[in-house]
Each structure stands twice: as structure tokens, then as C-alpha cells.
Amino acid sequence: MGESPGRVPTAHPDRIAIVSASIGAGHDGAAAELQRRLTAQGIVVDRYDLLDLVPARLGRTARDAYRLMLDRAPWLYQRIYSSTERAGGGGREVRALLRSAENRVLKALHPQTGAVVSTYPGASRVLGNLRLDGRLGIPVLTYLTDFSVHPLWVADGVDVHLAAHAVPAAQARAAGAKDVRVRGPVADPRFQPRDLRQRSLARVRFGLPPLAPLALLVAGSWGVGPVRQAARELRDCGAVVPVVVCGRNTALAAQLRADGIEHVHGWVDDMPALMHAADVLVQNAGGLTTIEAFSAGLPVASYGCIPGHGLTNAEALDQAGVAVWIRHQDQLKDVLDNLIDGPLGLSQRDAGLALFADSPDHGPAAEAVRVLRSGRPLAASPPATRRRTRLRQLAVTTTVACAVWTSAVAAGVATSDEGSTLMHAVSQSLDPDLDSGHAGHGADGHHR
């Protein structure tokens, strides 16, 4: 099924691999829609989860630690995000973690794969390194799932970066990407604008009030962020009735019901129908659900955003004119009224739908096929020699760091004096600003 680590797979004109990561649902959701579109064009598609290709379950350990950080120590995530943003890459432990996956990724690729598409920054780092080392002789494309582009998204060795809009395209170029193409976002085709009849039917189906203005509050598949506070403030502002989707966070759903929030959902399989029932979407991370709302013609507001990419996505979406960023509670009523019944909602609805105005022939999947079949010269460097002893040492460091993250945050010590000291020490070890001997690019997972 795979090649030896030192060989370059032979290109095949009708086979593309997509490498994502099961961190939240956004990266996998984008990968699934790209797969659907590519398959419709007659392309054979192989899907891989990068977390499955990192040795010793380190990828899943890092994912669990990241989730716990968002939930228990968001300040730590903000620190790591900001420090890597300044430095243009991650620390040595992150780089070691990704280096450890390179051989497994190369072995997993079918020998007739003609191109690889990444929907996750860590995967882009791995694939870019393989291209630079001359061990992967086929084009690599990165599909940017976010509207803001952290430098970790831009990996040396990646041939093409695909952006949904001019704003992320400009950020990618500023981060060093050389070939950036604006090809629009991807969303499941079930997300379409609704009419009044569909709105009424959806409200009956989900047991929602037939006439009240409804704000659909989402927080990703993990249900992270200050969701309880946002739900209460939406309810109390008097402009909307909140309908909250908690993803797989059952504890959050129970807490919201205890808070007196009447309409609370866990994981929702038919989000297109629930969006039909709503008048506005309120989001806190800028992930795939935001893109789906644009496709559904639903006005979007960012509020109560999570640290890191939640804040930078809110800013980029606001700059692009597709989603207003509500920064303060006292703005809620006026902005929501304007989104539901005013000109702001009409303009943002049009701007969101305009992202999908081009035909699929001009979308990111079609662009991947064009790159696959272009026969473009591939500039690959000779294979580089690895110092495996150093790699093993760094991988052990990564394991320890992830274990400390997980145990410290899970135990709830992040709010104690001892916990703050411990978490500060971990964040120091991952801060590239304090590691002058390891400047440069690395990778981190974040997501929706």
C-alpha cells in the first residue's frame, strides 16, 4: 500500500489523498466536502487522519490536552497561540512531534497518489517537510479552513495554498506563502437559503417558538468557550430567544438547562434544518459552522469568542464584511436587531452567499484537480539526513509536556497557585521566543 520512506510515490492522474485531523469537526468536515466534490469529478480519494499517523498515540494525547486547555486554561492557549504567531512557528516539541509522523504519512500514501491536499496545519507541515526533503515528489496543496491565517498554516514545501476569500489570502501571503489562490469555501450542499415555509416547518420540528426571533448559538463540536455566559446575555438582551447547540458536551447542555435556557441541543445531525429555523447565527470560533451559515444565507455574529483563533477569526470575518464582531454586551440588542431586521443583515447575507457565487468548476476541489493534472515541474530537494537520536529525545519531551498538560488541566489545578506555576512552566517550554536555537516554523493544531 505504501512506499519505503526514501522513495517518491509515482503520480497517478486520478488519485488524490486528503490529510486532515480529528481536532474538533471543522478540519474533517472540510475534508469530507472536498472528498465529495473530488469523487464527483471521477477522482479516487484516500482520506487520512494525521492523529492516527503520529506514533504512540501522541497525536491524540495532544488533541486531548488541547481540548482541556480550551476548557480549563484558555489563557494558556492564548499564550501559546500568540507566541507562535509572533515567531512564525511552533516550539521544538511540536516540530519533533510532527517529524515523528513523516515516515508513517509517506508509507500511508497510495503509490499512485498524484497530489495531496491538507486541511490541517500540522499535516501541511509534515507534507511540506517531505517535499523539501525530496521524499515526496507530488504536489501538496493546503486548503485554509480558517478566515485568519496563523503562520503555522503556511508551510515551506507546500506548492499551493487555497483560500476562501481575499482576506485570508492576504494573510497567507504575508506569512510567506508564495502561490495563494482564492477559490472560495466548501460547505455541504444541504446548506441552502430557506423560505418562510421551510422556516415554519423547521421550528415545528425542533419545538421552537413560531414567531420569536431566534439566535442559534454554536460553540463547535466540543462546546467550548464562555457559552453559558453568552447564552444568558443573549436571552437577557431582549432581542432574541437563544437556541444553543452544545455539540458533544453533555455537561454544558445540562448546565444550560439548569440556567433556565429553554432551547438546548446536544449533537445535531441535521444542522441545515436547524439553521432554517434561525434568524441569526452567533458563533465563537469561526469554524466550519460559520461557513455553513454563509451558505445557508444566515447572518452571522461573533460573540464571546474563544482565545487564539477564535479572536483572530472574528477580526478577519469582520474585516471581510461577512460576520460582525460584537465585542461588548451592551452592543448585543442593537446589532442583533440590525442583523435580523435591518440593512446589516441584508448586506452580510449577500456577502456570505457571494462566497459561493462561482461555479464548482472554480472551487478548491476543481483547483486541486487542475494542479494534479497540470504536469507542472516539481522542485524537490535531495533527501536530508536525520539525527534520529535527537528526534527521539524531543519526542519524549513532547510526551511529557502533553502528559503534564492533560493531568494538570484535568485535575483543575490551572486555577490554583500551584497549577498556574506548573502551566506557566509548560507554556515556557513551548514558547519559541525562549528557544533561540530553534527559530522557524513548526505546527500546532487548532481548530474549529
Automatic annotation (TrEMBL):
GO molecular-function term, one example from the UniProt record: hexosyltransferase activity
InterPro entries to which the protein is assigned, alphabetical: Diacylglyc_glucosyltr_N, Glycosyltransf_28_UgtP
GO biological process terms on file: glycolipid biosynthetic process
Domain Diacylglycerol glucosyltransferase N-terminal: 31-182
Gene3D superfamilies: Glycogen Phosphorylase B
Recorded superkingdom: Bacteria
Annotated segments matching region Disordered: 429-448
Record bears the keyword Glycosyltransferase: yes
Pfam family, one: MGDG_synth
Keywords, in A-Z order: Glycosyltransferase, Transferase
GO cellular component terms given for this protein: membrane
Comp. bias regions, Basic and acidic residues: 435-448
Sequence similarity: Belongs to the glycosyltransferase 28 family.
Annotated protein name in UniProt: Glycosyltransferase
